[in-house]
Amino acid sequence: MGNEKEIRYVGIKENVAYGIANAGQCFGYNLVAGGYMSLFFTKVFGLPAQAVSIMILVLGIWDTVNDPLMGAVVDRTRTRFGKLRPYLLFVPLPLSVFTILLFSGPILLQDVKSMTIKIVYMYISYFIWEFFYTIGDIPFWGMSAAISPSPSDRTRAISSARFISGIFGGLSSTVLVVLMDLSNNGIISLSLSQVFLLMAVIAGTLGTGLFSLAGICTKERVVQSVKEPSVIEGFKVMFKNKPLFMIIISSVLSSFGGLSGVFATYYYSEVVQLNSLALIIALPGTILGFVTYLLIPKLKAKFDNRQIIFLSGFSKLIVGTVVFLIGYKNFTNYYVVIPLLMCQNLVFSFFSTVNAVIPTEMIGDTVDYMEWKTGERYEGISFSVLTFVGKLTGSLSTSLSAALLPVIGLSFKVIEGTSETVTVKGDNTDIYIWALFTFVPHLLGLLTLIPYIWYDLTGEKLKQIREDLSARHAELSKELSGGENNG
User: Fold this and answer.
1) How far is Cα 288 from Cα 321, in angstroms, rounded to an integer?
2) Contact assessment for residue 399 and residue 56, using Cβ atoms and an 8 Å cutoff
3) pLDDT of the chain along its 487 residues, tens only?
4) Is residue 483 domain-resident?
5) Which end of the chain has fewer surrounding CB within 10 Å, N or C?
């Protein structure tokens, strides 16, 4: 049994393909994530902040039903390709089309005067894009648990996905902010609406093309039971699985921490008015982030997953507070801001990289936990938590940020007779943005640590679960092969 745990089932090529697929997916998602969607709808499409806030909130709440429902459907799927791969083979094409349509509104409706029609287009295009993204995202992350029975294989697969997507998936936001600055300064002849559409076309062709590798090049190796769990049983898993439920609650509370990413966009765009400054500030942290993947095994040797989560939360608060205080009267001074935010980004990048792997791995542990308790595996419903909570928290963060814009005195007015907008700010708007970028989200982020007090899949308990499941999988494999022992 001890030797079985050391077997490596997943080769380098499959890990790389899985990582490249995630990079392709993230290339498009990064155009939607954080503050870019809010900025696109309010500044580029010229829609009211209140309408954007309500739409993103409503669809975020819808995800709490839609994603688990999709996860339950995935768990019922039984085909010769597996239960996850069929969706990964199907979804790239429609996702490609609706990624492009999502960012086409300002071009397609440039001569339309009715704000109602524009708002309806926003709702429909965002809803359909999100629907197809869900169909691909849940099976993709479910594959990280089904790709191998080995915890080490899973960690490598998740790390590969996060690492490669960190390099190539992030290129979309990098190129986007550069093109935005070139457009704003008249260096290129593209308007902001054309810049966003160009990036959407690249994401919808190259990005989704790479994402298709997840269905083509990966295998499901964890043996599934013949029985198909009902949709109702799948939904019940989220409440029966206490460790998973703690992750859900913590992740929802992380919406407050997400304000930092959204207001970072507004800080660079509207306070210092240089979007590409974010690239300079992020460079040292980006390099450290890649190195951090090599340090994760050493970190895990000293701390369990729950302890790492606590370490991350408190570290971000301390650093964010120091940055806010030092930059309080100097947040537009490049000589102060650049080194200050670089230092912040170094610390945040380290923990962001760790947090890109650890929670995903913890959800895989909760899948094992439920199989240990019930005999059934629920990758679909369990990893729907990763997807719907990620989208819900992103939606809540973006919605709350959009709702805060009038409160802090930031608005965008459409110039009469054109599709261009002008920024309007109050006396204290810039300092509010600075606070919401650096300090406030990480103070509120401490709320996310509370549920982990009751998360207990650590130490000897987790070790015992893995040992028991190893023996069960060997028996189930023998039954499904007609009683022959191929080990």
Assistant:
1) 22
2) yes
3) 344 445 788 888 999 999 999 999 999 988 887 568 878 998 889 888 888 888 877 877 777 677 777 877 888 777 778 888 899 999 999 999 999 999 999 999 988 888 999 999 999 999 999 889 988 988 898 888 888 878 788 888 888 888 888 778 878 888 998 999 999 888 999 999 999 999 999 999 999 999 999 999 988 887 665 555 655 666 666 677 888 888 888 887 887 887 888 888 889 988 988 888 888 898 888 788 778 878 888 888 888 888 999 999 999 999 999 999 999 989 999 999 999 999 999 988 888 888 878 887 888 888 888 888 877 777 777 777 666 666 677 777 777 888 888 899 988 776 776 656 788 888 899 999 999 999 898 998 899 899 999 998 888 888 898 888 888 777 766 665 555 444 3
4) no
5) C
Could you please report the per-residue DSSP string of 147-197?
S-S-HHHHHHHHHHHHHHIIIIITHHHHHHHHHHHHHHTTSSS--HHHHHH
Asked whether the CA dihedral 199, 200, 204, 205 is positive or negative, the reply is negative
Residue type (1 letter), 38: S
Residue 248 lies inside a defined structural domain of this protein? yes
Tell me whether residue 482 is in a domain: no
By residue range, what is the domain housing residue 340? 14-469
Residue 484 lies in a domain: no
Phi-psi group of 418: left, alpha or beta (phi > 0 → left; psi -120 to 50 → alpha; rest → beta) = beta
- CATH number of the domain where residue 154 is located: 1.20.1250.20
Tokens at 174, concatenated: 């990098």
- Joined together, the tokens standing for residue 367 give 């899948």
Whole-angstrom distance, CA of residue 144 vs CA of residue 167: 19
Token pair belonging to 117: 């029609």
